[in-house]
Specification:
The mean pLDDT is 88. The protein is globular. The chain is 66% helix and 0% strand. By secondary structure, the chain is mostly helical. It has eight helices and no strands. Helix 2 runs antiparallel to helix 3 (56-76), helix 6 runs antiparallel to helix 7 (178-202) and helix 7 packs antiparallel against helix 8 (210-224). The protein has helices at 17-31, 34-50, 56-76, 87-107, 119-140, 155-170, 178-202, 210-224.
Length: 229
Amino acid sequence: MGEWWTYRPDDFLMFSLRAWYRLLELHNRAWWPMQAVAAMLGTGLMWAVHRRVRAALRLGLVLAGAGLLFVAWAFHWGPHAGINLAAPYFGFAFGIEGLLLIGVALLRSELALSYGQGTTPAGVALLGAAVLLYPISALLWMRPLAQAEWFALAPDPTMLATLAVLLLLCGGQGLQRPRQTCTLLLVLPLVWCAVTGTLSWALDAPGWWIMPAAAVLVGAQAVSSARLP
């Protein structure tokens, strides 16, 4: 056995890129037409944020939290566990984050968007990327739409939508101890961006840089909003 520093990320891969795309296809087929429902809910959330609906932030937290819980149960603890030994641990992390988001939405009755912060346009853009652009990107990478990744069904677009909602939350109003709360809520999504970016890079997947780039954007916006240390 060689020294540990001689190993590369692809040395730990347990499946191929083709197997991953096939897994997504089977998952989409099993849960059709939930994709359309999730897309409509995500689009409605974008409209609510854009129109400054009072309950938009709370709705976003609940939708993102429910999506994370569903992905944890139906994907990570389901078919993903059949090809990846780490999948159940990913599911555990998604489940914790989902419960935290829903808990904040239920316990903080005075949550509100703040439109004086630059986090709102960035949040809406990330929501659009997660809900609309992510599925379409399958066609850009020359894959059938049956293998697309959808918000509330696949890990990356669901976590991207979570980052968008957290960006709105951390730039908004109504949180007690906003710095500590936002730091806590951002840890798991940012770690996931690093994990999935590394895994996608090792698989030589097109667009492997998307989630790490989103993490950098959210981190920079959160810091500039003066809500995080």
